[in-house]
Amino acid sequence: MATATGTQASTKFQAFLDEHLERELLRFTTAGSVDDGKSTLIGRLLHDTKAVYEDQLASIKQSRVNRAAGPIDFSLLTDGLRAEREQGITIDVAYRYFSTSKRKFIIADTPGHEQYTRNMATGASTADLAIVLIDGSKGLLPQSRRHTYIASLLGIPHVVAAINKMDLVKYDEAAYKKISADFLELARRLGIKNAQIIPLSALEGDNVVASSTHMPWYKGPTLLEYLETVPLAQAAEERSRNRGSLRFPVQLVVRPDANFRGFSGQVASGVLRAGDEVLALPSGRRTRIDSIVTYDGELQEASVFQPVTVRLKDEIDLSRGEMLVSPDAPPAVSRNFSAKVVWLHADPLQPGRTYLAKHASRTVRVRATAIHYRVDMHTLEQLPAAQLEMNDIASVNFVANLPLMFDSYAVNRTMGSMILIDAVTHATVGAVMLERDLGTPSVELVVAPTTQVHPLILARSAKTARSIVQILHARNVPHVLLDDPYIPACSLACATRVAQLAGLAAVYSGEDPSKELMQQIEQFLPQARWIQLPDGPLDEAAFIQRLDQVLHWENSEGKE
Amino acid sequence: MNAPAPSLDVTFPHPAVSQRALNHLQALEAESIFIFREAVAEFANPVMLYSIGKDSSVLVRLAQKAFFPGKIPFPLLHVDTSYKFPEMIEFRDNYAREIGAKLIVHKNQKALDAGANPFALGTQNCCGFLKTRALLDALEAGGFDAAFGGARRDEEKSRAKERIYSFRDKAGQWDPKNQRPELWNLYNSRLNKGESIRIFPLSNWTELDIWLYIYAEQIPLVPLYLAREREVIVRGQSIILKYDDTHMLPGEKTQRIPCRMRSLGCQPCSGAIRSEADTLPKIIEELIAFRRSERENRVIDHDEEGSMESKKREGYF
Ligand SMILES: Nc1nc2c(ncn2[C@@H]2O[C@H](COP(=O)(O)OP(=O)(O)OP(=O)(O)O)[C@@H](O)[C@H]2O)c(=O)[nH]1
Ligand SMILES: [Mg+2]
Residue ranges of the domains in chain A? Predict the structure, then answer.
């Protein structure tokens, strides 16, 4: 068998292989309000490009469900979950793969229902192009605006408005023109540069693959023609990232034996070259790349997205979550930054609450310190907000317990994206696009340069309180003693909050606070942040241990 | 009877795959390697589900690449229904030895002792006991918090819906209506006690990509994937390979036809296809001309509408 297969790779096959491998890939997503026809459009596109296997087509023809006016409900090609077919809506993203002679495509068909906006964001986060569907008989809806907004935030370079169900408005040019104008105005306000508008009918197949005979007034490309020819942002991004500065987040340290110590990761931007000088962050140590190791042999250089393992000239301390970068153009290194947030969870984002945040290969803890505004989806106005509800899009400032090494999302997707994870349930709750390094806020310079932790310590007696103050002093923990006669027990919540904002640990030795009072305090100071001492003499060792636990928040990565 | 052929003597010519920019396969490879490394960095005790098929073979190669020059830092787990083709078992043992991987083989012995087989139970129940239950037991026994699998989104409509990190609750179940959002390549590996994650590094690969990669990388395969003349029973639409212990219905005869397996599952439930494709280029050419999906010859997916989804909810891979 070995010899039989060995010589038969015909030149024809080799040519096919080369052509196939070099064919460009376009990843696109659908977007838009519920029932605007996204899934039907994708089904139609797959069907008309002959990308559906016969047995799959037969099985949807036999399906019990059919909401379409015609013989085939094309939405069933992507709405594969039972609940989706029963309810007639898309719930989660479906990924489909097809290719034509010109390009390969990965489609993410996402749900329009507001409740599942998080799944739309999932599908859109990896897309190069978004098709926003708009029902021609309904026009631009708030959810169409929200999705277009998310697409622009995610930096999807191309946005196509597909004005669907033209059959329902008798293929009327005036209806098309009205919606076009609304969409172009939205695109202008969102700063979307490459907007294309195509009138079509997913149900009937007009302008999807074949040109419509019903709309002679439309002279532009069909959807497929457009998808096959739109200049690829991905290739452009790859080129510009190759020219950019080196960013190499370390994923893993490989140490198979005593002689080999390498750092594995994927190049996020720039070029990694053997012999080049690199800067390790956050340590600030400089060294040179000794060699670039892969399973397929050593490389002289590695470019964007290539997974490699590097060895360094010097034995410097470097681990997962850290980074090698160009010494002449390092990223921001900061604990304070501003960002755009899409909130994905039913539990609201609350300023002051701690979340886990995954950025590149590092997980830290962050808190929102200020919400500048959230966006109203009807008017695109910026409104004040005390917290963020599910599906809100907002501008937020954050502080992290450890510095992040980041670039703005607009410059570098990998270096500028972050997810938020609930510290207790571990649900993914937010998508974050980093913007600016806010430096060190001035108020911190005044009162709390070294720490962000503000425990409340409830001492039972004035004597204990004094011992605690000494311990805090010795350990350099900024603090304040709340033993002033003008601060009665009922004001403890306010006083603690003031201390927290000032970056101080508070030591209190008055009467035991009531349960209601503690509940009030817990709103801004979770249980893990206060220490209630037992009656009797202070057990110093136990106290110090507990204190370290609370302070540990500052010095550890997110991993518990 | 078909004597199992020597498993490892399938070698292929080395193609001149272009090394310039990241081409399509290299981009897929890069994504998969990234996923492997993330998972190994963040999970305490991962394992790889190894099914001996073509996708598993690709998965193993990607893992070798991800951790080179180190060895694959997790065991391979094969859930053996005991109804696998003998060629598969032989290949599995040889291959695991050759690459120096730790292999765990798990069977639901209790169910087998009680006589579980697809003829008596029906394919649904048989898979339930011998695959899904066995898998969940094996994962629990090993205390694994993450399991890599070779599933691809282009295989089946419910798989098309799955995340790369697919969250499982304490009972090992998948809730397709409530998956975690998964943005960019920032995978959430956080778990509470008893929960676990299935990881699918091949999510974005298509069947064609798998074959091209196998060709480009010269990855060894179970010889059943390549066509040759084999002794078979033709039963309705299905072509069943004949072994010593194959059930024959009254009046059935065997015949010899050129055929191969497009997808490898259990012997009683996976049919062969008529094919003369005895080399990888021929398989690939044939694939491009196919108008029917690869899982069509697997009985389990077609028992009823949405049957794969039900299996997946319960914990099937
Ligand atoms: N008349 C007409 N009906 C259409 C057209 N496209 C879709 N529909 C119908 O509109 C309904 C909704 O279609 P879907 O494709 O499920 O809509 P969707 O946008 O995917 O919905 P979600 O994914 O739930 O947000 C179905 O009954 C379709 O048959 C069209 O071009 N013309
Ligand atoms: Mg849909």
Answer: 18-238, 247-325, 332-437, 456-559
A33, A39, A40, A207: which to mutate for ligand 1, most atoms within 8 A of CB? Answer: A40
pLDDT tens profile A395-449: 999 999 999 999 999 989 999 999 999 999 999 999 999 999 998 754 333 323 3
Nearest protein Cα to ligand 1, atom 28: A68
Query: Any idea which residue has 């979770």 for tokens?
Result: A526
Q: Where does A247-325 sit in CATH, by number?
A: 2.40.30.10
**How far is Cα A511 from Cα A517, in angstroms, rounded to an integer?**
12
* CATH number, span A332-437: 2.40.30.10
Pocket of ligand 1 (CB under 6 A): A 34-40, 67-68, 75, 89-90, 111-113, 133, 164-165, 167-168, 201-203
What residues in B contact A80, CB-CB < 8 Å?
A: 156-158, 160-161, 309
A15, burial (CB in 10 Å: exposed 0-12, middle 13-18, buried 19+): exposed
Contact A246, A301 (CB under 8 A): no
pTM of this structure: 0.82
Full set of structural domains in chain B with CATH? 24-218+306-314 (3.40.50.620), 223-302 (no CATH)
Say yes or no to pLDDT of A138 above 70. Answer: yes
- A428 contacts B188? CB cut-off 8 A: yes
The yes or no reply on domain A18-238 and CATH 3.40.50.300 is yes
ipTM over the 0.90 cut-off: no
Q: Is the peptide bond before A282 cis (omega within 30 degrees of 0)?
A: yes
A4 interfaces chain B, CB cutoff of 8 Å: yes
Cβ pair A83:B67 closer than 8 A: no
Contact A373, A395 (CB under 8 A): yes
State whether residue A25 sits within 8 Å of chain B by CB.
yes
Contacts of B33 in chain A (CB under 8 A): 266, 307
CB contact under 8 A, A1 and B9: yes
Distance from C-alpha of B26 to C-alpha of B24, rounded to nearest angstrom: 6
Contacts of A13 in chain B (CB under 8 A): 281, 284-285
Architecture of domain A456-559: 3-Layer(aba) Sandwich (3.40)
A499-537 residue pLDDT tens: 877 778 889 887 778 888 888 887 777 766 888 888 888
Hunting for tokens 């040109």 — which residue is that?
Answer: A211
For ligand 2, an ion, list residues with CB under 5 A. A 38-39, 90
Alpha-carbon gap: B115 to the closest alpha carbon of chain A (Å) = 32
Nearest-angstrom CA–CA distance, A95 and A107: 5
Sorted by sequence, the CB contacts under 8 Å of residue A558 that are 6+ apart come out as A356, A357, A358, A363, A364, A365
The domains spanning A332-437 and A456-559 adopt the same CATH topology: no
